[in-house]
Amino acid sequence: QAEHEGSTPLMFYTPALNADAQSRLALESALRMALETNRLELHYQPRIDLRTGRVIGAEALARWRHPETLEYIPPERFIRISEESGLIHPLGQWVLNEACKQNRRWQEAGLPRIPVAVNISPLQLQQRGLPDQISEVLARTGLEAEDLEIELTETTVMESPEEAAVALHLLKSLGVRLAIDDFGTGYSSLAYLNRFPVDLLKIDRSFISNLESDPSAATIASSVIALAHRMGLRVVAEGVENLAQLHFLHRQDCDEIQGYYFSPALPPQAFAELLRSARTLTVPVTSG
Ligand code: C2E
Ligand code: MG
Ligand code: MG
Ligand code: MG
Fold this sequence. Notes:
The protein is α/β, with parallel strands linked by helices. It has 12 helices and 8 strands.
């Protein structure tokens, strides 16, 4: 392009970032820093067998305190930021490694042996290297594959079910357990569900919290339990907060529960104490 003497220089107008985008960017760099300086935490929420009342598993949940306010930022928020920025890959790797390392430590300390469940983002599932990454982590930490469970949401696997089926078979061949998380919120075709080599379904918390107020939530919850059992899968109810919900799930023969009624996610030390205490859940007898 010809330059004309005296012509007006081309001006670039840079709109100021709006406050939202700015705080998002600030969070993103703080999150990157947190990953580099090992400031993320993992907390563990127990899963309880409804027949024995015993803790039979733990879900690892990422926790991050803002470096300045020291308040915990909701995982939904920082996981979304990490997915949008690509940080989900180092973050996911850190979570996997940390959860496996922690579970191995508990085993070495002589605590009851339980699987640890790790949430996997759709972006991680799409990565061809995921199975290798998982087997490397298992080898490095010395954890047996059966002591690791991978949680994928229903939306993640149904986004592209053909590819997900292939990916899930590769993961399954490692020997890890597979769970479908937040079940009931997406649209699963039964035909696909049948082709996913999964071990358990986790009924989404929204159905459990509406059990008492919404008859259709109760219908969906009991249908999912029956369906899972017909397919030979175990079923976990998420977000159990009260006795009424517990009674309902017990009557419906749900296998496991997870929720504040028994315990929220705990820092590793507190979770170890819970395991050591062998505290159990008792389902009080209903009067009616
Ligand atoms: P999720 O995998 O479905 O995890 C269950 C969420 O329900 C957790 O929220 C847990 O604290 C919460 N919860 C459990 N019991 C109750 C209850 O009785 N009442 C209520 N109100 N809530 C309960 P949290 O820890 O805030 O995590 C939210 C979501 O963030 C998780 O949902 C998961 O999708 C995602 N997430 C958390 N950690 C990770 C991670 O390490 N990697 C990935 N990819 N996602 C993660
Ligand atoms: Mg989960
Ligand atoms: Mg869930
Ligand atoms: Mg969820």
